[in-house]
Amino acid sequence: MMTGSILGFVAIAIYLAGWVFHQRQLRLDSQTKPAALQIVAGGAILLHGFAIGDLMFVDGGLDLSLLKIIALLALVINILVWISGLKKPLQNLNLLLFPISALSLLVALLSTSTKPALIMSVEIQAHVLISILAYSLLAIAALQALLAGYQDWQLKHKHQNLLMRTFPPVQTMETLLFELIWAGEILLTLSLLSGFLFYDDLFAQKLVHKVVFSLVAWAVYAILLWGRHYRGWRGNKAIRWTWAGFSAILLGFIGSKFVVEFILS
C-alpha cells in the first residue's frame, strides 16, 4: 500500500508538471509538442495504473468505493486519449484531463474505503469493465463537446486566442465527437445487455437508479445519432444532446453511488 501511495503521488506531480508544460508551450509559440506530451502523459498513466491497482485490489477482492472508481475512470479516460492521440489531435484534452486526474487520484489516495471489497464472477467483472469503458468514452465525448462549443463560440465572436490556434478545424472536431459517441453508445449497449444477462435482479434496490439513468442516457445518445444521420444535427444542438446524455450517466452512476455510500450509509 505504501509503494502504491508513493507512485500515486509521483503520478500527481507528473500530471501537474505536464499541465504546466502544456500551458507554457501554448504561451511561447502557440504550438503544442505532441511527442513530449505523450511521453509525459504515458509516465503519469503508468504510475497512476500501479497506484489504482494497489488501491482497488485488496483482501482478495475488489474495492469499488466511489472515489476509487472515479480515479479509475480518470485512468481509463487518459489511456483512451493517449492511444487516440497517437493518430488524432487530442492533446488539448489534457488541459482538462491532467488537473482532473491529479485531483481524483489525490482524493482516492487520501480517502478511506466506503464499502467492503467484493469478490465477483468473471462475467460480472466483464460487465464492470465494459461499463467503465463506456462511461470513459462518453466522458471523453463530453469533454470534446465542451472544446467544440468553446471553439464555435470563439469563431462566432471572431476571437483567436492561443488555445484556438491549436485546434483542428470545426468539422474535424465534430467528426471526432460523433466517433466517440458511436463507440460509447455501442459499449453502453453491451453494458446494458451484459447487466441483464449476468445479474440475477438488475432492478434490485441499489441498482435500479443506475439501470434507469443508463437507459435514459442510451436513448438520448440514440436520438442524437439519429438526428446527426437523418437531420444533420451539429453545433450547439449536438453539444446539448451530448451533455444531456452524459448528465444522465453522471446521475445514474456517480449520483447513486454517492447516495448509497455517503448518505444512506
Counted beta strands = 2
Instruction: Supply Rg.
Output: 19 Å
Low-confidence stretches: none
State the domain count.
2
Q: How far is the N terminus from the C terminus?
A: 26 Å
Strand order of the largest sheet: 1-2
What is the average of the pLDDT values?
83
Number of helices: 8
Which structural category fits the helices and strands?
mainly alpha
Question: What does the main sheet amount to?
Answer: 2 strands, antiparallel
Q: Estimate the strand proportion.
A: under 5%
Order of helices and strands: HHEEHHHHHH
* Principal-axes shape call: globular
Name the helicity range: over 70%
Walkthrough of the structure:
It is a single chain. The chain has helices spanning 2-29, 34-56, 66-84, 94-110, 122-156, 170-198, 208-231, 235-264; strands at 57-58, 61-62. The protein is mostly helical. It folds into 2 domains: 1-114; 120-265, no CATH class. A two-stranded antiparallel sheet has the order 1-2. A hairpin with a 2-residue loop joins strand 1 and strand 2. The longest helix has 35 residues, at 122-156. The radius of gyration is 19 Å and the shape is globular.
